[in-house]
Model the fold of this input.
Amino acid sequence: MSVQRVLSGIQPSGRLHIGNLVGALQNWVRLQEQYECYYFIADWHALTSQYADTSKLKEFVKDVLVNCLAAGLDPEKATIFAQSRVIEHAELHVLLSMVTPLSWLERVPTYKEKQSEVKDKDLNTYGFLGYPLLQSADILIYRADYVPVGVDQMPHIEITREICRRFNNFYGEVFPEPEGLLTQFPKVVGTDGRKMSKTYNNCVYLSDPPKEVEQKIRTMTTDPQRIKRTDKGDPELSPVFQLHKIFSTKQEQDEVAEGCRTAGIGCIDCKKVLIKNLFTVLEPIWEKRNHYLKKPDLLEDILESGSKKAREVAVETMLDARKAIGLGGLK
Done:
């Protein structure tokens, strides 16, 4: 039985933070040991909302690549590539756009949600509306078996499956229907208690130096009930404790929770434990980041080699797709 294929990507719309590490990169590292994995830097996707200012796009692409490698992705085990270097993604996107009803794109939950949430950008573009269609092309062109997602992202997988069925109904069985590989991503809160997001400027970035990480944690929002050191609190109301649930041991979680409830420890004491455990995770990543940042030629080689390998698969898929539709040669 052949090894099944996994496909996933990440947008270079800013520097990666610990939410990206927990929500994607650590999972990718685990999956590369079990599946044939294709992981891409979705630079075209970044343009769907960042099209007006691309001055930092190259910097962010490099940041994504460096962090992927620093987190443990192995180019010998997984194919790591840039979306824009495999032009067949765009060709399949065009072909899929010919058969996809407009209403399918308009009903994707994130379409209206982001339009209402993002006030500083004009998202009334086809690129933004067609984001799920490009995502479908990304998946189908590698004939991926699985796409690792959280429950909230399942609508994107479902529309890909619908587009896949519609294409196959018209032209024959060109693409297999991908399945969502459901993963429990813990919610990573930011320094202000909201979801960690570049939009909210509340992130602990993987590229932050140690002193900055420590400062961000030390000034984090805590339980609002604990105004004085002697005030008793509720750890569940503290964003710091939510990070403890991800980065601290069960014993440490129990100890800081009890200390919070009884005022046995102060918020600074609680944060010191979190800082120690966060550093345990980040220090090897910082070391590897520094290693790769000193080798720009190696980074380019890794990305180019991965993109070349990915394109070989994409070219083969497009030959089948063109043939099924009746495009190309006359014989």
Summary: Residues 5-188+296-325 form a domain with the Rossmann fold fold (CATH 3.40.50.620). DSSP finds 14 helices and five strands in the chain. The longest strand covers residues 5-10. The chain has two domains: 5-188+296-325, 208-290.
